[in-house]
UniProtKB/TrEMBL annotation:
It comes from Paramecium tetraurelia. Belongs to the mTERF family. Transmembrane segments: none annotated. PANTHER family: CGI-12 PROTEIN-RELATED (PTHR13068), TRANSCRIPTION TERMINATION FACTOR MTERF9, CHLOROPLASTIC (PTHR13068:SF151). The keyword Transit peptide applies. The lineage of its organism: Eukaryota, Sar, Alveolata, Ciliophora, Intramacronucleata. This is Uncharacterized protein. Keywords: Transit peptide.
Amino acid sequence: MRAILFRFSTYSKFAEKLQNTKFATIYNYETQVKPALSIYESMGFNEQMIFRIFKNRGLSLVKGNTANDIEQLSELFKSRLNAEAKQMRTILFKDPQILSHPIDKMNNYLDLFEKQLQMSKEDILSMLTAYPLLMRNFEVNYENFRNVFNTYAHVSDKQFGQVLVNTPFLFSFNLERIPPNFRVMYNREYKTKEIQELIQKTSEFLALKNHDLDRLLNHYDVLIPNKEVQHQLLINNHKLLLLTPAYMLSPKINLFKEIGLSINQVGQLLQMCPNLFLKSVQTLKLKLKFFEKHMNVKIKDAPYFPHILEFDYWTVLRPRIGDFEQSRECNGQSKNESRRFHQEKYQELLNEAPTKKKVDADFMIRKYHRYCHDRIQLLH
């Protein structure tokens, strides 16, 4: 076997690694490994990707007619979904065992996606590229999950299709957790239409443990007692339903209470800047400490609070605020005049920031940073 592997001269590292796996003792290189390897090379897979595929999915690659299977699958996805070579590489890399599905069965699945679930070709390809493992045991999983979602949320076929597009890894959830979590939502007076809207954006929160979801919603009940307002906030910012258990909400609430905000004010803050509560506890601590201790600023009383806390600490807040102080000294302004000037400029930027992505907001801050820098240079 070693002599055979040395013939694989162009991928010597691959051959060397392969000798240390059980794969090398089971399959014949010339008749089973090499043909499949050539196909993957021709599709643009690099050495590292090929080794990972062979090591983890060797059985699915060497059995049957690999060349014919890949050709048929590629042709099917190209003709039905307009798939390109890059997307086929992604699908095969994530789950080479997709080749074990008969082509006629794959055709039937695509028919179901297009006709029954009313998905567009773009959505189907996006879903399969993101999570091709969706196709494993698809028939059993589809019927089971579709029945649960229909029973508890009364979703139509088209709505369930949207659930799959936005949460393609749905079938990896523990199905037993989903009905109790639906009941948790109904117990909090969520309407069926609200639940449908929420799960179409992401049904990931349904995979949480029942008591974790219940505990998280208890916090929101305290922060925003108005059910209608609370429901709309969570629908528009569905990631807020994923703050447990890895990203706990209560420590963030406590941080804002420590700077003097009441529970009612924290609730208002949540409605104004929901993204703040998605940031890590350590990130928020770092920003609050910077303003309170190093800048000697009562951040809760600042005119640019709370939006300023949405900006990145290292690349936006610390360097820009340092430049503001330098600008004040060079202009000979008093501390109050400088603070008023910079607050006005910050407010101009912050008024635009909430409607734009973080990158755009950061760019606006950097644009103002260059303005300050140019003013300083002119004074010299």
